[in-house]
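Subject: sequence -> structure tokens, single chain

Hey, anyone have a minute? Need the predicted structure for the following. Not urgent.
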Amino acid sequence: MSECENSEHLIEQTECILTYAGSTKDIMINYALIAINILLVIKLFNNNTENIRRERWGIGKRWFAAFGFMFVVLFQIVLCLIVGCAGVSIIWCAICGWILREENLLLGASTTSVSTLHDTTNPGPATQQGKKIDLVSLVLFVDISVIIYYSIVEEPITTLAHFLAIIMGSCISLLGEKVCTMETTNGVRGSFKEK
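Reply:
Had a minute. Here:
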């Protein structure tokens, strides 16, 4: 039984869940990861220099990502209320999964070769993309490092929850892809698709 289950009121339980039952170290680690993952997504969304990214992340996809984020936050709280856990790590792990799928698709669709991604002598678009890939790699490295840290200091169920949350984030990305490019029965693009 976690400390959060001892609270009588739903608001107190939710506060306990969101504050790791008062663990300052866990609060700092996990909220910092939520912040850097969200900032990375915002930076990727706001990059208007790449046609591929602009086509993939239209306004509908952005709204879907925002609703997906709200769903994950609600899922985290309800899950912890049901099973008696505390924390927000499912949130940043889901964002990590979303980023992994989105960036993997963009890298596959990119025409820039791997050999030019890190070419520092050419200040053109390939160098800019290389910097973005390095930023994505850095954030994902930090995410995975923290998952490894928690796999050492916490129970195995925590690591399982992290990996399942990454899969959930990837599935939210896939669902967003399907919803935002869905065609109606009369052949007209769905309302989420931008031209």
